[in-house]
Amino acid sequence: MQAGPENATTTDERHSSRVAFDVNGVPREVTLDNRTTLLDALREHLDLTGAKKGCDHGQCGSCTVLLDGRRVKSCLIFTVTLDGRSVVTVEGLAGPDELSPLQAAFIAQDAFQCGYCTPGQLCSARGMLDEVDRGWPSAVTEDLAAPPELTDAEIRERMAGNLCRCAAYPHIVAAVRATAAAR
Amino acid sequence: MSTDAVGRAYPRLEGREKVTGTARYAVEYPVDGVTYGWAVPSAVVRGRITRVDTAEALASPGVLAVVHHGNAPRLAPGLEADLWLLQEPTVHYRGELVAVVVATSLEAAREGARLVRIDYDAGPHSTVLTEDHPSLYKPDHVNPSYPTDTEEGDFDAGYAAAPVRVDATYRTPAYHNNPMEPHATTARWHDGRLLVHDSNQGASSVRAALAELFELPRESVRVVTDHVGGGFGSKGYAKAAVVLAALAARHVDRPVKLALTRQQLFGPVGYRTPTIQRVRLAADTDGRLTAICHDAMSQSSTILEFAEQTAVYTRSMYAAPHRRTTHRLVRLDVPTPFWMRAPGGCPGAYALESAMDELAVAVGMDPVELRIRNDTPVDPDQGRPFTSRNLAACLREGAQRFGWADRDPAPRARRDGRWLVGSGVAGSSHPARARPSSATATARPDGGFHVRINATDIGTGARTALWQVAADALGVPPERVEISIGDSDLPNAPVAGGSMGTASWSWAVIRACQALRGKLRDGVPTEAEVSAGADTSEEVGGQPDLPRYAYGAQFAEVRVDATTGEVRLNRMLGVFAAGRVVNPTTARSQLIGGMTMGLSMALHEEGLLDERYGDWVNHDLATYHITGCADVESIEAYWLDEHDGELNPAGVKGIGEIGIVGSAAAVANAVFHATGVRIRDLPIRLDKLIGVSDLA
Asked: Ranges for the 2Fe-2S ferredoxin-type domain (chain A) (predicted)?
């Protein structure tokens, strides 16, 4: 059975809520157990298994998605809080016909091996580049008043919340650097 | 005709699926009527379950069943005891998985697991490895089948007579594999057949294990392992998740998804044993080794004997007339250790390559030169020439690329502001072996070819590498080749482990493709498909027993904060001699990954066990630190062009493990060079170096 609205409803109505939110630009309405995290809503109820469960505690970054444009760890967010919000997952990064430049750069730079942390890395990098565009500093930014310059040290620091046990880190940095440079 | 696909930098075949989120891992397949399993760990270390109270759990909404030793389907005994789960009330270690709650949702299963009440009769326990532990003993062999001890010449006399001696004891803590994807399984039974989607490193052996446990013909079990989120050894065999999921699915007669939690990955799936290693080296005044002794201690569980082959590395690495290696083991009330990237070689090389650095200091010799001086074309252990040994070439090329020639050998002699700066080197080696495998190749009327083999791609790039190998063996452009892996219905193949995957699988792929070409002498098929198969058992088994090894040399530069003791890696560079490289892109990634895990071992990782509770307290990724993106400033991997005709048809040596071997020693040696302080127990945390400006 493909997950659909009927599968997205749990039977215990006392502890369930109806939530309407956008996922990858598509309005979704689900009735879910109030304990259901965004990560589990995506994976178990909306058949969007791109976001990965690596730790379920917000420690590894594999579940990173964009919530109203900002990167968040979806295992730490209760779906019941998301009425009217907008979520973008790794499945929503590519265009209808071609990969986003970031996704293409990850392939070109071999920025992953097992691929399990990759959806989180991609969403995190997407959100991180927007943060830089907005002028947000990081812990390694020297001049807090000036627009941040996206050095390798900045990329490494800003991507430090996404663990990769295969350790594709140098290639992840290269992919982000190439994507940023091509914009 | 060769199309020269091998050696070219193709991107991964599954790259698009992995960057779009469409690559499905073990618990990501939609399944009708699926339920969720949540494993319950034991709360005591050693003892016996006296009562399982399931009432409250079963009353919780959505909970379907609590499966435990009192009601679980029976498993056949006799296979690995670690897999005989939910069969008896005995508890062997804290965290042993003693029950599974099955529910209609993840949330209900998790809540149900919290509500299961288990009473125990608990006994005293012993969970800490010490060098004077009263239960130390000599195992019959070490993993997988090496002699426990070896001795040539007279070590004691040789050591006593030498003018230069090093005697040092090194300690490594427990390391936990922590692949990003936990061990996870979707299991379903239908008409007495078992289908599992499982995260493992080899579906053929997992199928065999399940067939034996559930007393089924192997044909009645299918294990699909399409994409695997890393393993690093911990998924090298059937583990708790797949057995528990299959048990639970049979019990509730519905499909079950079960993923271990991150916390449950610290124990029940194996880990690298802590080690205590004494290394003694003796040399003459020009640095030539005269005596080598490596005594290694490690632990196993009361369930199974797993004896890490820690000192085996030392048997073949450097030559000396007087040599001894020993292994001693203690059986503790702990989970069973298991494979973790380069078992034996990884901790063993940390000790030996650190001791070589100490010897270089004692002799007053450059550590690169010291290693080259003690290089040997003949395996000191087997007494036969290595099929190829390019350790010296790796050291020389690495030294040149790294800029080693400018190095001032004096420790603690360079300062950059608040940082003390130093560099270090280590050698590395890893056996280059192969196991029997089978494969089939099919020619289609449309001009395409299909190669089938139950290999596993755990992130190594195996799918892509075998596709390249097949194209060359068929003499066609790779675009005309389709490759299928990761399914036990495909021809049997060994695990992705021991740096043997590509060597073993490519051997069978090449033979199957050659057999197909023999059949196709009359031309490509016009109507029906033509297939040929190969099984390399006889050929691999008949291979002469020669010492075959890959080699490497790692160079590291660190900076150490003179006040806080914080260690940062400026750069690391490795040069490897690993036979033919099938795909430079994926090979480089694996080597860099291995070196990074060595950095992680040197500076970050440490399982901290609380003896009162007999368990690791830092059992998550917030407190068990692994190297992150911000820790890796520069890591580069290179390799030599190496051709060894005594390996396998593809000429490969395996590259999954050589990267980690030696890397921790290179970092530790660099820390000594920077600070003048030798830390002999890993990891080199800042508290061991705090106030280093006042130390040494």
From this structure: 17-93
Domains, chain B, with CATH or none: 15-23+435-541 (3.30.365.10), 35-124+179-261 (3.30.365.10), 141-174+272-432+546-694 (3.30.365.10)
Which residues in chain B are closer than 8 Å to A175, comparing Cβ atoms? none
Which of B272, B273, B277 shows the shortest CA–CA distance to B355?
B277
**φ, ψ at A21 (rounded to 5°):** -150, 165
Q: What pLDDT is recorded for position A11? A: 52
**Domains contained in chain A, CATH given:** 13-92 (3.10.20.30), 101-181 (1.10.150.120)
- Pair B491, B23: CB distance under 8 Å: no
Asked if B21 lies within 8 A of A50 by C-beta distance, the reply is yes
CB count within 10 Å of CB A51 equals 26
| ipTM of the complex, rounded to two decimals | 0.97
Residues of B with a catalytic annotation lie at: 657
CB spacing of A49 vs B589 below 8 angstroms: no
| Contact (Cβ atoms closer than 8 angstroms) between residue B169 and residue B225 | no
Is there a contact between A164 and B61 if contact means CB atoms under 8 Å apart?
no
Please report the pLDDT score of residue A33 as a whole number: 97
Strand ranges of the sheet holding B47-53, from the earlier edge strand across to the other edge = B90-91, B47-53, B117-122
Q: Which of B24, B259, B620 sits opposite A53 (nearest CB)?
A: B259
Residues of A in contact with B460 (CB under 8 A): 113
Whether pLDDT at B522 is above 80? no
Looking at residue A96, what is its pLDDT?
A: 85
Backbone angle region of B222, left / alpha / beta, with phi > 0 → left and psi within -120 to 50 → alpha: beta
| pLDDT > 70 fraction of chain B, expressed in percent and rounded | 99
